[in-house]
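Handout, tutorial session.
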Amino acid sequence: MKNKKIIIGITAEGSVNLLLGQLAFYKSKGYQTYLMAPYSERSAKFCIDEGCEHLIINIEREISISKDLKTLWQIFWIFNKVKPDIVNLGTPKVSFLGMICAFFLRVPKRIYTCRGFRFEHEIGVKRKVLIVMEKLTSLFAHKVICISRSLRDFAIKEKIFKKNKTLVIHNGSSNGIDLSLFNPNEEIYHKVKRELQQKFDFKNKFVFGFLGRIVDDKGINELFEVFCELYEENNQVRLFLVGPFEMSQVTNKNLINQINQHPGIINYGRVKQEEVPGFMLTMDIFVLPSHREGFGNVYIQAAAIGIPCIGYNIVGVKDSVSDGFNGILVPIKNKLKLKEAMIKLMKDKEMRSIYGAKGIEWAKNFNREIIWQELHKIYQS
């Protein structure tokens, strides 16, 4: 019996972080594995590390009829050449175009992994177009995997997906987390913490941490405003920003200058995945007031390291942060409640300790190997 061919597709090359270890696992199970994604040094290295073939496509997140038609033909040609037994496509654009091709080429198993909805904060024609794209993608798929229960419930309630073909793997998340990597007892991470504390003079300072893309959707504007108020009241607080600043996704074009000029903010930039645990250990509280998440994997990473979390009470985040157990959830875009939560945890060391310890236990519910095994069962069914 021939090895089954599986193509995993993503729109943005940065999304390979959501697949770490997964394709290598499938290869160990006998699959011929392929990643369909734009080329970058990161995606190329990912394919080498995972032992999969890189199927390079030219694709952009934003809608462009002429460019999207070229990408559609490119994907059609790839699928026709490779003749996959399974396609699992995640992120809206590649899923929409890829599922059309897979449907007409009669790929035996077509899976759409929904990681969230771009239309949530859109209005007018663009919102309607994005909703239609989601409905058509699910129509052409055999199964739709939502990466959180709240995302699935929202999709069914809004009649985006049909209940009988929509499921959630285990407790949610598209890839789980590597508990061996996010281990708070690893001495190397504590060494990184000490080095960062010394480099940025964090010793005897209270550090609020943010890790992710620095864009409007991640709540950077509210966080910046709230932190500025906190700093005026107490100049011993710090905001440690870890992640890339994406100018195209930020409305306030002066924000990067305001951040860089603020004496209490350290804007570090992007770090490698294996460096994340050490950087997180430097934080007293993890704060990510994201407006939109399919599932907040980064909150689980912080929990695994023993860091209490603060986020908005929205779809996806409410699955990854248990309010009052390992963190605090507040109403979306409510700066007053966000500030209150930050002050509450800052002042209550015992609560931080309790949330941190519970978070380590909470994170064990999202072991990535469980996710992979469940996906393997779906591919074999």
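The second record follows below. Compare its token runs with those of the first.
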Amino acid sequence: MLSGFRVKRADLDASLAVPQSALYFPPRPLKDEMNSPIQFTNSQTSPTEKKRLTLEAVSSHLLATGAKPIHVRRFFRAWLGKGEWPQLDDERYPKAMRAIVPSLRRELEAVLELRSRHSGSDPESERLLLTLADGQTVESVLLPRKGVCVSTQMGCAVGCVFCMTGQGGLIRQLTDLEIAAEVALARKLRPETKKVVFMGMGEPSHNLEAVMRVVDLLGTYGEFGHKDLVVSTVGDRRLFAALDKSAVKPALAVSLHTVDDEKRKKLLPHGTRMSVDELIEAADKWAKKTGYPAQIQWTLIEGINDSTAEIECLADKLQDRYMMVNFIPVNAVDGSPFKRPEREHAASLVRCLRSRGVIATLRDSAAQDVDGGCGQLRARELK
């Protein structure tokens, strides 16, 4: 129950003011020629080697030309679709910076490319399969109501038994620049994009520093309201510690799926760092601190976590909590033993929570009807 709080549509969609302080990354001088594509030094290796281009490397490259923080800010705003690119004759920028902008833009465009687009029955939802510079692929999703869902890892180490992404384990982390590039592409395809949810492939708290740098970038440069940046987690104390230190205060989504700790360990074999009660307490504290509700994500699986008794227990735990529940029927995956409950039964669970004063919704993952959820597009490409 949201005791003492009222959750309105406007509360969920409205934006907070973007901080005015300039965000930039500490300078790290590069030794390459200003007019050439970035050549990586010892701490920054090429995309074909272990390390990849990062937000810090781009910022350092700009600062090495004599650019000021405000110039770096304008550059990133242009990349994120909220400003004009510096032109060769624009004397507001240092001449050396103007000279490298064309090649640097090409470097950014090469971070990822759109491999294929997959529309579902909802015209506002579209699955994107993206190819990274090293040839690996990830998924993003254009969402209804001007949103985009981005991936934060290549694969995932949590190993959720009902998720295709987790079946192959963690391949590698995405860099902060690769994650931000997903947003830049979304803005290119849909300039009106105003919301980012970190709920694609991967567990954000397992790539924490990169994710928080992207949150900072988007909330400072990208004209995204704080509550329009939604970070998902299976539960990690390090994430909550990082949130407390962040200047940008994103909304939170918790992948809960059950109120039974032992069952949760089986459903999320490598993701249960916090108990259910501890996770709910931490999420509720953050929600009340920021002023917007935490979302409980619950993948409904027939015979596993869809009993009325368990949902009643969930309602008990959410009394006086500033939280809401999203039920999402499990994705249909070939060979998987997990099935969706009947639609009417799922709807009855929503009614159960609402009768107890808990806001609840029932929805499908975006473009689920094209078998695009939970890494399924990528899995088909690998066959």
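Points raised in discussion: Confidence is low (pLDDT under 50) at residues 1-50, 369-378.
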